[in-house]
Specification:
heterodimer; A: 222 residues; mainly alpha; 10 helices; B: 247 residues; 0% strand
Chain lengths: 222, 247
């Protein structure tokens, strides 16, 4: 079982590395969306500092959601997803490997690029570690919950927009705790409470989401 | 012991039963609605603080209750759909979604109308209003998913998973929103908590709540019958029914 998990992880990572340009898309999207805000709100430093946590998190959330659509698509189209579900290993473990690989190739780069964008928006220096911490705890939750939506819409021709409708309302708790933590850090308040909540959401989603995703895939594949 | 459950699972028997119940339920709903509205809007005393504008709660509160109740019904039917694959509960789940969405919408509209004289603005990011808004988004996502999937049974099972995921999330969303709004703006006026409600206002409220629930049951049964007859259009009993209509 562990072997199968690692095999799928390795396969998906290799596939992603061979398509580097696709990996860059969510990053560029993140960058462009964040740069739109100063143009819309004006370049004043105080305004930007004030709204930076919210903007960074909403943009990260949208970038993660748009990248989500590709999680199972190519495997669905070439039939390997069906083979995956037919294998003797528990599908939830295999699905977890796929989600992890997807997060490593789309979520992790967002965290790497976030300091640059924080600089763009004049986020106070003491809030930066908290921003990275919330992204590290929060984006895996987005991938986990999003995977359920992707699995439900994978068989549909135009599932992309529908996917955002299904999963964005479910992202509300992550957004509230993560943006709240960064907001508090920028103002110099303690942030442990929100980080604990995010960690709890992560544990909950790692436990339950693979099961729901596997069940959804079975339904979508008929 | 489970024979009645088993029987009710047959689309044909359920259809007949729903058909027979509908006029009774509809009649009781109409009577209760008239009684409840008259009692609430005319007989019940005026509130000493809010004047007559509080009377919107006789619509608002039942709608808000139903908006959550209907989602629970959908989640429970969803679990039954996934475990026993009952066609009847598929129909009930699909029939309930638009009704729940409308109850949520009604609760939001009446809430913001009540907010205008009370808070001085139509919309406040109050914890309850925000949770209701997100509940509306959940309903709309469910309906969009049902419309996107062609095959009825696949759609029902996908919807069942979505409803169950939603029901796990609703308490998390609710408490995170509540926590968020207390941080941002301090505690706002909460409707029923301030002085505990007097019996002269509570009684019509309960009548209205029962009326709304029965309305939901009536219309859900009617919609479920349409779903069933559409899904079973190739079976012999539906053809028999259609033949009887022609004569």
């Amino acid at each position: 079982m562990g072997h199968a998990f690692l095999a799928i992880l390795k396969r998906d990572l290799t596939l992603a590395l061979r398509h580097r340009s696709e990996m860059a898309n969510p990053l560029v999207f993140f960058l462009v969306v964040v740069s739109l805000f100063p143009m819309a709100l004006g370049p004043e430093q105080e305004t930007l500092t004030q709204v930076a946590p919210g903007i960074l998190w909403v943009a990260a959330l949208l970038a993660a959601t748009l990248a989500m659509d590709g999680m199972f698509r190519s495997d669905f189209e070439d039939g390997s997803l069906e083979q995956l579900l037919l294998s003797p290993h528990p599908p939830s473990v295999l699905v977890l490997a796929k989600i992890l690989a997807h997060w490593l190739t789309t979520g992790l780069p967002l965290i790497v690029i976030a300091p640059l964008l924080a600089l763009f928006l004049h986020l106070p220096g003491q809030a930066l570690p908290v921003l990275l911490g919330t992204l590290a705890l929060g984006t895996p939750v987005l991938s986990m919950v999003g995977a359920i939506g992707v699995a439900l819409t994978v068989g549909l021709r135009r599932g992309g927009l529908l996917l955002t409708l299904l999963v964005l309302p479910l992202y509300v708790p992550v957004l509230i705790f993560a943006a709240g933590a960064v907001d508090n850090a920028a103002a110099g308040f303690p942030v442990a409470g929100q980080l604990y909540f995010l960690a709890a959401l992560l544990v909950l989603s790692v436990t339950l989401a693979p099961l729901a995703t596997a069940a959804s895939l079975r339904i979508s594949l008929g | 012991m489970f024979l009645w459950f088993h029987k009710l699972g047959s689309p044909k028997i359920f259809y007949r039963l729903a058909q027979r119940l509908t006029p009774w339920l509809g009649g009781i709903t109409a009577v209760l609605l008239v009684v409840g509205l008259y009692w609430g809007l005319v007989v019940a005393p005026t509130d000493y603080e809010q004047g007559d504008s509080y009377r919107i709660i006789f619509v608002h509160v039942p709608a808000a209750w139903l908006s959550m109740f209907v989602y629970m019904i959908m989640a429970v039917s969803g679990a039954i759909v996934l475990i026993w694959r009952m066609k009847v509960t598929e129909a009930i789940m699909r029939a309930s979604a638009p009704l729940g969405a409308w109850f949520t919408f009604l609760a939001l509209v009446t809430g913001s109308l009540w907010g205008k004289p009370m808070w001085g603005t139509y919309w406040v990011w109050d914890a309850r209003l925000t949770s209701e808004l997100i509940l509306l988004f959940l309903y709309l996502g469910f309906i969009a998913l049902q419309n996107a999937i062609e095959d009825r049974r696949t759609a029902a099972r996908a919807g069942a998973i979505l409803a169950l995921v939603g029901v796990v999330n609703i308490p998390i969303i609710h408490y995170s929103v509540e926590w968020w709004s207390t941080l941002h703006q301090g505690p706002t006026v909460s409707k029923l908590d301030t002085p505990s409600i007097s019996l002269s206002m509570l009684a019509p409220l309960l009548v209205m709540a029962v009326a709304f629930t029965l309305y939901y049951v009536t219309v859900a049964l009617m919609r479920a019958r349409c779903e069933i007859i559409d899904a079973e259009s190739n079976s012999s009993w539906v053809r028999e029914l259609a033949r009887q209509r022609e004569h």
